[in-house]
Write a structure and sequence with these properties.
mainly alpha; 5 helices; elongated
């Protein structure tokens, strides 16, 4: 098995797991917010943990969702500009974009995120209503950054392979 095929298979399995996890997180978020509203109006007071849990779930949902969107190539982009460029410039633009996202995800989100997480765990701060370490809010950042890094590595690699094979095909067509 080639390294590219291995990372593609790994990313495919991670994306499937991520989809399922996001459904669970979203369902938990809906149930939590619904419980918060119902307890406020029916019981006269909102459960103290409901708002904190909703914020925690929203952070995880947004960051893991961003990773899945990167995998599926559905993130915001300048498609109109890219489509107006010649094919070689489109490839270069795609590679540049993938490299920029990969660099940001690897350095800022993953490495910087783990620095932040380790600081928060060592600070001992807790979420008062949930009673868990506040660092769990921040763990989503390096997890999402790691996933985005893997997904962008595959996209970059795929673009490089298609660029190379397209160039070889064009050369062989020109020779014949």
């Amino acid at each position: 098995m080639t390294p590219f095929r291995a990372i593609t298979q790994l990313n495919h399995k991670l994306a499937d797991l991520l989809q399922k996890l996001l459904v669970v997180i979203f369902a938990a978020l809906v149930a939590d917010v619904l419980w918060g509203v119902l307890s406020r109006y029916l019981l006269g007071g909102q459960a103290s943990w409901s708002e904190e849990l909703a914020r925690l779930l929203m952070v995880w949902l947004a960051l893991l969702g961003a990773a899945l969107v990167c995998r599926e190539q559905r993130h915001l982009g300048l498609d109109v500009v890219m489509r107006s460029l010649p094919p070689e410039a489109q490839r270069f633009g795609s590679l540049l974009g993938y490299a920029a996202i990969l660099s940001f995800a690897a350095v800022v989100m993953t490495w910087g995120g783990w620095q932040l997480v380790s600081q928060r765990f060592s600070s001992g701060q807790t979420l008062p209503a949930l009673g868990i370490a506040k660092a769990w809010f921040y763990v989503a950042l390096p997890v999402s950054g790691g996933l985005i890094s893997l997904f962008m590595l595959e996209a970059f690699w795929r673009q490089m392979i298609s660029s190379d094979s397209d160039s070889e095909e064009e050369e062989s067509e020109e020779l014949s």
